[in-house]
Amino acid sequence: MKKELEKRTIKGPDGFEFEVDPLTDYYCDLPPTVQTPAYTRIIESFFNWARSESLWILGFGTGCGAIEMRPLMTPRFDAYRYGVQWRPTPRQANLFVISGYLSVKTLKRVIRSYEQMQSPKYVMGLGSCTINGGMYWDSYNTIKRLDDFLPVDLYVAGCMPRPEALLAGFQELKKIIRAGEGEGANEYAKRFEWYKKNQKRTIHDWDMPDYNW
Amino acid sequence: MVYQPDRSQYPQQRADGSLDIDLESGKYLKLWQGPQHPGITGNMSLELTVCGDEVVEAKTHVGYLHRGFEKLMERRTFIQCFPIVCRICVPEPDFNEYCYAAAVEELAGIQPPERSDWIRTLILEMGRINSYLMFLGGQAGSLGLGVVAQWSTYVRDLMLDRFEELTGARIYHMFILPGGVRGDLPEGFQQRMEETLKEIERTLGDIEDVMFCNAVFKKRTVGLGYIDPALFNPYGVTGPNARAGGVAKDVRRDQPYLIYSQLAFEPIVGQDSDVFARADVRRRDLLLSIDLIRQILAGMPKKGPVMAKIPNVLHWKIPPGETYIRGECSRGEYGYYLVTDGSGYPRRVNVRGPSYTHAVALLERLIVHVNISDVAGLMVSLHTYPPEIER
Amino acid sequence: MMRELYKKTKQLFPLGDLTEQRHDLVFVSIPHPFLSSLLRHLRDKEGFSHLVLLTAVDWLERGEFQLTYLLCNRSKAWDMGVRVVLPREGATMESIHTLWPTAATYQRELKEMFGIDFPGSPGVNDDFILEGWDDIPPYRRDFDTLKFAEARFTQRPGRESLDPAQHMAKHHSDGS
Q1: What local confidence, expressed as pLDDT, does residue B359 receive?
Q2: Do residue B64 and residue A74 have CB atoms under 8 angstroms apart?
Q3: Is B175:B123 a contact under the CB 8 Å cutoff?
Q4: Deepest in the core among B140, B186, B347, B368, taking most CB within 10 A?
């Protein structure tokens, strides 16, 4: 446990003393809930259409695949014309592109970032290393299957995938969302215990709340 | 009006030289820049302690991209190592391939054919152009000039096309293998390369106008992140970071490898050792690389083998020995230290990435007393790539 | 040439044999108590002012760690690797961060990856690359990365790994 996460008494600049327990005070400890479509089918499919046309990617380059993001943002490939854009913070993003292998240290940050994103949210695994470890199948520091830790909607294979493959992946993801099958966030809420068990099995120094959003 | 911070708020030094920072006092704030942050080069993070807008202490955290290459290579045969080494550095992977191949050739006593040396040099210079174009976009973007990133990425894509027709891949080329290179130049390559180089030169002119002649850019970067040339040796500063401080260190000229001794060039040297000087040195180095590519394509032998005969790679054993191979990549001195023990596997491979010294000890020192809004610009100016720090 | 430098230095320090790898790269070995004075001498008197790298090699069968300090003389374009052998059990080495501040980073990595201690080096006990590591240091030869990965991470079924030599031999005998 990190020192700054321990329960302690703090004296503020104005002289008052108060007690702080970061794990319960700074985070909400409610588990995620399943969000059911409360509308009629036609409204829900309208919502899904709108969601599919505004994929906002979290700008977190977790691995080498992140290098193909810059060409996608620029005139040659220009993903913006498909309603895909990059956001700097998880609060504004709804698509998490895991761009390659995840080391255990990054996995921790990825889980936090994912949980901070707003529902409905989608995950795209990039490269063969997110599928089965790829080149790093025998590495002691990279996870071998992404879908043990996060609900993955779509994988794009390759080492590394070309920008065109990513564009095709975005189109495929749009189809999934429009069909109402992009239920990753609900899946995560439903099988929350199972995901947490997997995450804690890999991350041994778990020093964050179970769900931080 | 000049900004004058209230120094009475600043931390005192303890007897051992560390800073007496009491976070609970409310004077200081701990701020994590990264790993999920747009103002960071790749997947790493800076733990900043700020007082007002000014950084008083910084710590670099790396390891987010650690895959344990040096361990993985110990259990792969020499030829199996070849496709994985390029993954160590993403924007400029060819140096890994070259250094690894040259180290294996030296220990195994293989002499690659002359034409392959020319092609290798060509690939390395093309990779350098890619890397510098990434840098220019990043440096301008980190200080709010997004348009330069759009232009430089566009011309970088043109260079990637040349890579693609030469090697078949955009990013990881896997082209330089022990014994030579995987293939010859395609037909008409020289002419298409010339068109690409012209386009890059034209774009560089535009970039010079909007970036290097830009009053805001100058005002923010001149004087920022000054590295005292006396620190170059203690902190292991190499490459453009050192050349921007007036030290003409360039492995290409000092210890020529491949065919650099046959090319005419002088190292690019700057004066001021600040962020602006480093960006300017890299821009001029880019023009030098363009010139070198023209020299290479003109002077290359027209015919000849590109691959030496190598033993059966399934049973390839290399006698015991150790060696170190270095090259001048776009960030500084890149090197491979290879130890063999007579078996079919490397005993130990150690990668010396230039960012290893730049991004940890040096950055932690430079960043103190820098305004928080300049941290990203300063960090990019050292041109650090985290994967070569942690491998 | 470098051989003269070696002869000259040998009168001052108990150097081991000289290995000439290339005309500009040599390796020498030295007992570990003399290391920092040798490095200081090379840095201040012989112009080897650039510490290129510091790394370790694990000789498991001999029970030794070899530390390699690679120095470079920029003006003469010479490289010299100084080898130091340490016993593998409880390996401890003198820190050289006072000679080159950047050595602290290398020593931090060696402590984490090989378990070689450098007392007094700044931040040597902090996590550098790994986080929450609870096994033996991973770059040691007796650490089996494949076994560790299989135990720690779940694998996706269907992946097949073949030993190339065996596979080729089988393929060859079947086909011809």
Answers
A1: 85
A2: no
A3: yes
A4: B140
